[in-house]
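Exercise 7. Predict the joint structure of the components listed below.
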Amino acid sequence: MNNSSGTTYYEILEVAPDAPPHEIQRAYQRAKTTYSADNPALYTMFSAEEARELLKIIEEAYSVLANPSLRRAYDEALARGGPIPDNFASLYAASNAEEIVKAHQALPDFESTVTLKTTIQSQSAAKNLDPNTGRTSLSTYTIDEAFEQEIKNATEFDGSFLQRIRLYKNVSLDQMSEETKIGRHYLVAVETNDFKNLPAAVFVRGFIVQIARVLGLDEQKVASSYMKLFRSGGGK
Amino acid sequence: MTTVWAVGGGKGGIGKSFISSNLAICLARIGKPVTVVDLDLGGANLHTCFGVNAPSRTISDFLSGRISNFSSLAVETGIPGVKIISGFNDDFEVTELNPTGRSLIIEGIRQLPSPYVILDLGAGTGERTLDFFLTADQKIVAATPEPTSLENAYRFIKAAFYRKFRLAEHESEIHDLIESIMTNRDQNGIRSPADLIRRLTAESPESAAKLKSHLQDLKLQVILNQVRSREDIELGHSMKSVCKKYFGIEANYIGYLDHDNAAWRSARKRKPLIVEFPYSSVVGQFLGITKNLLNPQSFRAVI
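Solution:
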């Protein structure tokens, strides 16, 4: 019952491809009722585990179809034909975040272009001057070789590790929030592994990608590791 | 051309005869004469729903050759436009019903003079019940919100599906392909017919299309009887979704009927509900269901 075999999100929610938003909303609520535990209408047809799996796919379908820009992108992917990856929602959220950042960077006004240049110059100057100073787009910090190695070899990135890296690189929560446009409370929730207070997976993945980028980490590695924890830890 | 509606649902006592008789009266009231055929072989009691005595001629007489014309079995019910044909009264005759007899009955049903025929099916998932069900133009599955009834309704749908599937498989000559997919069902992740059809689509789109076109006329119409709450009403939507996700077949939720005192009071009096309590809410619901069955284009979804 996975969607790699060609089931569209529309088929999962059992709506027409041109269904208006309120129908998608209603279909989603109905699907949630149907595949929730203890629904007598599932009895003898789907096991509890199968129902949970279906619910997961339903959530994923809804997270895309309820979001106008994601839905448009999904429709385009459908129209192009060919396979659509299982985790379209999260993949797309990540690439979308990238695009937003790119768009942001592509449109600097004159003033910031000037400051950007000077920053780059001063950065490279500083780099030349002091090999023991590391930099992020927001801060400078003293390089700790041992910790750098630990980051490099790490395969598991949970909230507290991300926090340690952030503090090591001298980036404050406010700076991070300002730069990534992620609310402070969400950043705190990410760093404390407080999955219950985080939004749906598709958004969290976007958050992690952006945080990783600011901290100069491998976005895909960090995001997939964090999302694994998020899912097993009862995230939405 | 006769249009045939069949009312099935697996479990006994969920109101198949009640639904059949009242749908018939609804049809007659809007000017469409109808014959109701009691196919609850061995437990025929449709006549009681209409408050008439057991007809002297039954399907047994037709099968034994005493009566050669199937349509002459039809007797009046006292309600203009509604006739009934009674099934067997005795169990021992039922076991004698072989496939030839079955197809003779189906042929007879198709040649009835009334524009509409309603088949009141018996409980259970016997082959003959399934064949009568599958021959109908509108395949109505009735259930009540009780888990036992839902379980039996699914068992009935499952049995009907596999019977249809076997015929389709045979006609589209894809038996070997399906066999090979099912041998590795675990590796292929196949847990339901819907999974199988998806897998078949991936392996051989042509065969899958053939199979699908055969399965297409297995479209179900779900009626929930004796609902008492909002949650009960919602179960119909869940059944529709399960049909789609498990079997990959379409089901319409064409309506529900309230659990209503009027229904059992009319049953006690051996009078059809619509005649006895024409202004009860259940009668309105029956009319809505009838309209949905007559006019799929203007289908009004259950909200």
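Discussion. The interface with chain B takes residues 1-2, 5-7, 14, 30-31, 33-35, 39-46, 50, 54 of chain A (CB under 8 Å).
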